[in-house]
Amino acid sequence: MRNTRGKASPKQIFEVILQNVKAGSTHHVSELKKSWPKDTGDAKRALEALLEHLSVTAIPKLKQGKSLDDDEVKQILLIKTTLDVVEETVIDSLEHMNQEQANQVLSIFDEHLSDLIAALEFRAQHSSIVIQGNNKDRSTRIGNVLEVNCIHRLIFVGLKHFEAQEGQHSLAALVDCLLRCWVRGANGQRGPQQTSLSPADYDILEKTLEALLRCFNEDSMRTLMVKRVESFDRRRLRILAESFSYYCLEWRAVHADMYRRNPREVNCNHLAAVISVSQGFAEEIPAFHRALLKTNFPSLARNLG
């Protein structure tokens, strides 16, 4: 006897997956990588269901030195898997939409942007939930790099939408997030004299610089960045200024052996970019210029540049 019911349609399969995603099934969240809907309305529903799992109230409050309980492990896995889908599938899909379709999906990001940023910050601050490597210097910062990469891609795939938004609140929040990532990457330190990072490792970590430089070169974002830094108190200005010294020293430590072997092999573009961004801020923000002069950055820039 033939089966007259036939196979489930793609729409029916999607609806089953969506209901399980809403229920918090990590397996079905991951399934969306293979089954992301082409219909814009369904894509909006799927994205909204995903971002609900990143709400501030859903993020566990981890205590240092305390073992994770089963609920925390489950929630961390759900957050990690959800972020993977957002980064690897949702943002990719936006690149293939026309502006009208993209605007509809990006409007969901607008509504849940604080949740997305909170989840990215959680992952950056607790890099142990991210795949760890053998290199401690690299692995402890990978969460920050992933956050930068997500924010950077979201900004530029949705730039027209975010620029057209009244008040540009989403773009301001994304720019502010990039600035926090930049400072967090320096970790409040003066800069290493030695490091276990290789130039290949540094190629991954320098995505923070690439994102900051690209945003600084966009008029709308540079305006927002300058406005944000102008609002900093003396302490935050000092921390931001010192971060530029950190990145110069780290670049030198990473490339020292290569430079000693053959200076011509060393790509100085990213060092030049650090100097360029710092000068851009200094030219537009007198208070930052004064803070920068109080660090060892000017002499570092002269000696390394």
From TrEMBL:
<protein>
    <submittedName>
        <fullName>Uncharacterized protein</fullName>
    </submittedName>
</protein>
